[in-house]
């Protein structure tokens, strides 16, 4: 709101002699035009058609049923279906008089002026205009801006091609129709001025009315026009009554800081409480830079004498992409007390930044992180570090570290004069645990890995290919706070591989394709023992990010030396019908083994596949030297007009020939099926028998009848814990009078449980939301809360193709 001293004199005091003369000419011309229109027997010199107007009509042209031009008085009179065009503006009326001496156009309405350059439409009973329709005075005017904001006044005047002024004006974003003459809300003012250049509307002696009833008054008011996307002002106001924090009124105020930054301050006023009127102040700061964005969210709460004292939180997020290719992202989360976020329930528990990063205010762990990475051909640079702060009591048992980091540098390169490609890879990893003696994982682990590899392939003629590979690896571990583990461990490993292949492929006349590749491979590996506790992630993996693809060697184990010769072949047949069959037969021979030790064995693999008409299926089975099945793998995917189905199955037995020392079994399946119009069923299943925290089942549906009903349900069930992990349900119905009623239920064993009833209403000029919520945080000592929240915002909503009444 601006004071009178701040308002431009031109905006509200333009009552010069020139303006008074123009209004006098308007009323005189209106009287003359009315008499002329009544004298219907006047002779007409021009017939129906399109006529170029006199040259001083400034490039306008007019269409009318009848025209008459008097050269002596330079007067052009027209009537019947009149249309005048000029530089994107179009005027329609039933009677027009152009007076060449004064250079003015008098119009008898009803008339309409459409301006495509500003997106406005104006309706009036009478008008006096300049020939370019930039300046005018209208009587009984109704002005529509961007098909949203409507201003109606007894008199409307536009001057200098920039300023528009209304007297005795009513402004509203609500539709005003003959059967609904009173809008839901409106602003009435003695005078209003629109500055087209500043895109602001200034109102003097403004009165705010709801359903025709005055509810507020300000001497001066400034508001942006509908073309402004960012402007200072109040945002959605809300009032919340909570069994924990009492009744609070939130009034967010948005402040622009140039074109690339803004801040929102939200004072929370306690109504009827003992902690003072202004109890909490929320803030949000956002800024866009040339290469990224940041956003800060925070709040400070002043508590009463019997509380924990002042409390606060701060969340910060940022994302940057630099021309060098580096991408940086950070997140900061901190709170002064572990139950503060759960008690205050900021943003209803969750929101997201303006760049789309999700923020959870109801989680039991605060996570601050920094990540830097760059990926380009031949190089990978990455760093990720996290600090995890538990909001549970100090004696709680936790299954995650208090901090971890992962850093990697990988480079593929060549050296002049040396054939082949080199790979250098180094990885630094760490986990720190400072949560106390009840933490399930109290140990600290630091690890640095480095590896260098060279490899090359030669075509030696007759279709033969010779492959060579040399690699060396180094590992360094520091383990503390774990009496069962060796504190410091350093290992070095070496690998040499040479292979001879003879790949062959051919296609028959009937379209059948054959692929055959025999091979012989010699492997030498020198290992060293490292006893590392099994933890989540890859900190205990020999090849942490699989850059060297060591998993392709079925017997390679870093504590043991390994020498072997492998021979075998692959043969596949691909039929034109979509079927494929194949086999792999291989045998390895182990060297330098103890007397009487295992010296290797054969493996026999059969493969079957099919791909056609949206269906893809593959299956393979591996047999050992005794022809016992030791590995089975199957995959299926099928897509059709109304759904998608996918499933995989793999199982490996403990077997010397296969080189496995543990039994694994993994089943996964997913389904998305639109069984009816608007109804889609969803399901997902993962069963991992070799892990204790990877098996789950999920199922649900989404429904939208395209009319009034919509609903969704999704449940995740932990098979390992025999417990529901998450459960989300919503049901909504659009009501006949324009509102929406909804029911929600959210359960997350790591955050909170909440059930809510809501009623929303949105039309073209008001957005109203209300919710009754019962929630319980998983954070110990956080109080369960029953909350009623009502929020309202006035303005332009729900963009429409056009305003309609009826």
**Continuous helix count:** 3
Taking all Cα atoms into account, the compactness measure Rg is: 39 Å
Overall mean pLDDT stands at 85
**Helix/strand structural class:** mainly beta
What portion of the residues fall into strands of 2 or more residues? over 45%
Quick summary of this structure?
The chain is mostly beta strands and 806 residues long. 4% of the residues lie in helices and 60% in strands.
What do these coordinates show?
With 806 residues, the chain is mostly beta strands. The protein is built from three helices and 48 strands. The strands form three sheets. It has a 30-stranded antiparallel barrel. The longest helix is centred in the first third of the chain and has 22 residues, at 17-38. The chain is elongated and about 125 Å long. The two termini are 36 Å apart.
SSE layout and pairing:
Layout: H1 9-12, H2 17-38, E1 49-52, E2 61-64, E3 66-70, E4 75-86, E5 89-99, E6 104-115, E7 120-130, E8 136-145, E9 149-159, E10 163-172, E11 185-195, E12 200-210, E13 213-224, E14 233-234, E15 237-242, E16 246-250, E17 253-256, E18 261-270, E19 278-288, E20 292-301, E21 311-321, E22 327-335, H3 340-344, E23 350-352, E24 358-360, E25 365-376, E26 379-390, E27 403-415, E28 418-432, E29 444-461, E30 464-480, E31 488-501, E32 504-507, E33 513-526, E34 562-574, E35 579-590, E36 602-612, E37 615-623, E38 629-640, E39 643-652, E40 664-676, E41 679-688, E42 696-704, E43 709-718, E44 723-734, E45 739-748, E46 752-762, E47 766-777, E48 785-794
Antiparallel strand pairs: 1-2, 2-4, 3-4, 4-5, 5-6, 6-7, 7-8, 8-9, 9-10, 10-11, 11-12, 12-13, 14-17, 15-16, 15-48, 16-18, 17-18, 18-19, 19-20, 20-21, 21-22, 22-25, 23-24, 25-26, 26-27, 27-28, 28-29, 29-30, 30-31, 31-33, 32-33, 33-34, 34-35, 35-36, 36-37, 37-38, 38-39, 39-40, 40-41, 41-42, ...
């Amino acid at each position: 709101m601006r004071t009178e001293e701040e308002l431009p004199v031109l905006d509200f005091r333009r009552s010069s002699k020139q303006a008074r003369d123009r209004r006098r000419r308007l009323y005189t011309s209106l009287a003359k035009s009315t008499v002329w229109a009544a004298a219907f027997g006047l002779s007409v010199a021009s017939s129906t058609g399109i006529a170029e107007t006199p040259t001083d009509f400034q490039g306008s042209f007019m269409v009318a049923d009848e025209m008459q031009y008097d050269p002596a008085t330079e007067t052009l009179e027209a009537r019947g279906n009149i249309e005048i065009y000029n530089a994107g503006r179009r005027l329609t009326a039933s009677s027009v008089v152009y007076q060449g001496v004064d250079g003015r156009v008098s119009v008898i309405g009803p008339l309409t002026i459409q301006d495509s350059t500003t997106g406005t439409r104006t309706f009036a009973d009478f008008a006096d205009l300049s020939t370019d329709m930039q300046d005018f005075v209208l009587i009984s005017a109704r002005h529509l801006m961007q098909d949203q904001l409507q201003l109606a006044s007894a008199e409307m005047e536009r001057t200098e091609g920039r300023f528009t002024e209304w007297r005795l004006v009513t402004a509203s974003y609500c539709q005003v129709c003959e059967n609904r003459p009173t809008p839901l809300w409106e602003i009435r003012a003695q005078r209003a001025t629109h500055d087209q250049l500043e895109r602001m509307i200034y109102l003097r002696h403004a009165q705010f009315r709801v359903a025709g009833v005055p509810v507020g008054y300000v001497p001066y008011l400034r508001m942006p026009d509908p073309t402004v996307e960012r402007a200072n002002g109040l945002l959605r106001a809300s009032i919340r009554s909570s069994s924990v924090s009492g009744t609070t009124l939130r009034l967010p105020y948005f402040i622009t800081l140039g074109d690339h930054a803004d801040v929102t301050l939200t004072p929370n006023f306690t109504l009827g409480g003992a902690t003072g009127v202004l109890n909490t102040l929320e803030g949000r700061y956002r800024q866009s830079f040339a290469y990224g964005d940041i956003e800060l969210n925070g709040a400070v709460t002043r508590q009463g004498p019997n509380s924990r004292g002042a409390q606060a939180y701060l969340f910060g997020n940022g994302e940057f992409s630099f021309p060098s290719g580096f991408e940086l992202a950070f997140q900061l989360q901190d709170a002064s007390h572990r139950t503060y976020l759960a008690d205050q329930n900021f943003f209803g528990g969750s929101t997201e930044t303006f760049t789309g990063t999700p923020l959870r205010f109801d989680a039991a762990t605060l996570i601050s992180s920094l990540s830097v990475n760059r990926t380009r051909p031949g190089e990978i640079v990455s760093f990720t570090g996290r600090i995890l702060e538990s909001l549970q009591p100090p004696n709680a048992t936790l299954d995650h570290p208090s901090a971890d980091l992962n850093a990697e540098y990988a480079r593929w390169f060549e050296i002049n004069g040396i054939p082949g490609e080199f790979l250098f890879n180094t990885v630094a990893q760490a986990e720190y645990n400072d949560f106390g003696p009840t933490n399930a994982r109290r140990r600290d682990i630091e690890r640095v890995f480095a590896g260098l590899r060279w490899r090359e392939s030669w075509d030696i003629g007759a279709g033969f290919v010779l492959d060579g590979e040399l690699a060396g690896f180094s590992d360094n571990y520091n383990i503390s706070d774990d009496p069962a583990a060796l504190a410091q461990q350093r290992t070095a490993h070496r690998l040499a591989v040479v292979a001879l292949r003879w790949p062959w492929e051919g296609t028959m006349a009937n379209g059948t394709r054959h692929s055959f590749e025999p091979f012989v491979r010699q492997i030498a590996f020198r290992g060293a023992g490292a006893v590392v506790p099994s933890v989540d992630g890859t900190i205990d993996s020999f090849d942490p990010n699989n850059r060297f693809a060591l998993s392709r060697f079925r017997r390679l184990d870093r504590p043991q030396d390994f020498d072997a010769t492998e021979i075998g072949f692959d043969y596949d047949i691909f039929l034109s019908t979509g079927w494929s069959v194949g086999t792999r037969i291989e045998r390895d021979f182990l060297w330098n083994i103890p007397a009487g030790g295992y010296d290797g064995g054969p493996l026999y693999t059969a493969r079957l596949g099919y791909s056609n008409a949206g269906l893809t299926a593959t299956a393979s089975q591996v047999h050992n030297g005794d022809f016992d099945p030791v590995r089975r793998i199957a995959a299926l995917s099928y897509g059709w007009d109304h759904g998608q189905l996918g499933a995989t199955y793999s199982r490996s037995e403990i077997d010397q020939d296969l080189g496995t020392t543990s039994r694994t079994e993994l089943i996964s399946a997913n389904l998305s099926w639109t069984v009816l119009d608007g109804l889609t069923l969803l399901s997902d299943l993962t069963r991992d028998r070799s892990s204790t925290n990877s098996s789950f089942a999920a199922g649900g549906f989404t429904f939208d009848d395209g009319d009034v009903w919509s609903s969704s349900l999704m449940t995740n069930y932990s098979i390992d814990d025999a417990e529901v992990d998450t459960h989300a349900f919503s049901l909504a119905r659009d009501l006949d009078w324009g509102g929406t009623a909804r029911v929600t239920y959210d359960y997350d064993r790591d955050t909170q449980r909440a059930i809510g009833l809501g009623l929303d209403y949105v039309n073209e000029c008001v957005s109203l939301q209300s919710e009754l919520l019962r929630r319980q945080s998983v954070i110990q000592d956080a109080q369960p809360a029953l909350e009623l929240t009502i929020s309202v915002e006035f303005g332009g909503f729900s963009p429409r193709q056009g305003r309609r009444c009826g």
